[in-house]
Amino acid sequence: EEVLCGADAGFLDMGVVLRASSDPAVTADPRVLLNLRALEESSRVVSPSSSSSSFASSSSSGAQAHILPSMRRILTVCEEQLCEEEVFPQAVRYLDSYLSSFPVEKTHLQLLGAVCMFLASKMRETVPLTASKLSVYTDESVSVSDILQWEVTVASRLGWCLASVVPSDFLEPVLLALPFVRAPHLQQIRRLVHSYVALAATGKLHNSVTNTPHGLLG
């Protein structure tokens, strides 16, 4: 059961979701970029959709050999639910991290995608998506109980390291570090960068882009 303060509950009743904005006092600090790059290097993951992935050739189930970024239809859920921009790349991050270490049968890929979306929503979204809503998006081929059970499995196999770095995390520090970026252009730049990140994650850009360090995307 969700617990909300009275003010937040009132806004939700009106269909308004309160979201925090970035704090320039934090994001403008040059140490932020250095820390993000350090975290990125310490947790680099090679996408299983890339031919360089060991699972692409060694998995007994053959599932990883057929996993292409275009299969990540969780982007549709993010768009329709108006999720924050960081939710989708975070879900893809979990998906890549899991598949780079654990073989998964094709029949479980949809369930794994729903669980990664569920976890990413909890980490990045102000009002997380519910397991029941994600089940509906699978035409209820994935049950709520399956999502909840796999949530614990996926999180534990990822070592409970869920606060990982995604490309979107670099956006604000980079924008504030560029002296030629003007305030009137910020919104358009943000929109273009988020679109670029989504295209890279869904395989509409070359595979080599999906394995580019996050700090270089955008």
Automatic annotation (TrEMBL):
SMART domains: CYCLIN (SM00385)
Key words of the record: Cyclin
Record's keyword annotation contains Zinc: no
InterPro entries: Cyclin, Cyclin-like_dom, Cyclin-like_sf, Cyclin_N
Ranges of residues in domain Cyclin-like: 72-156
Keyword flag Glycoprotein: no
Superkingdom of origin: Eukaryota
Family, as annotated: Belongs to the cyclin family.
Chain's role: Essential for the control of the cell cycle at the G2/M (mitosis) transition.
Protein name from the UniProt record: Cyclin D3
Organism name: Kryptolebias marmoratus
